[in-house]
Specification:
The protein has 4 helices and no strands. By secondary structure, it is mainly α. The longest helix is centred in the middle third of the chain and has 23 residues.
């Protein structure tokens, strides 16, 4: 899906979800999102932090990307379930950062 917008991704995920039984409730999606954040944190800690993986947790070549993909998928599910337009949400938050953090991280 090269060049896909967030709206395109939301539509793709929506189609997949409807073909596979429908959305979970919001709290279940939040629980899954939390689980996925934990899995991403574990992978980052294994790669870049002090915690080394156990032999049974040997990371694959694409494990970091896989965890980010899982996280994005569930976030899109939650956005779809709650009616959030992620394209607009991202535009809004970038504008907020532009105003709130203007000059904070670099000399302007």
């Amino acid at each position: 899906m090269s060049g896909a917008t967030l709206a395109d991704l939301q539509a793709t995920v929506d189609g997949w979800i409807h073909r596979h039984g429908g959305y979970w409730d919001e709290l279940s999606l939040l629980a899954r999102l939390t689980e996925e954040v934990g899995e991403l944190a574990r992978e980052v800690n294994h790669r870049y932090g002090a915690k080394r993986p156990k032999p049974s947790e040997a990371a694959g070549e694409h494990a970091l990307a896989d965890e980010m993909g899982d996280l994005l998928f569930i976030l899109i599910c939650l956005a779809n379930r709650t009616g959030v337009d992620l394209d607009q949400a991202l535009v809004t938050v970038v504008r907020k950062y532009d105003v709130r953090d203007a000059g904070r991280w670099s000399e302007a």
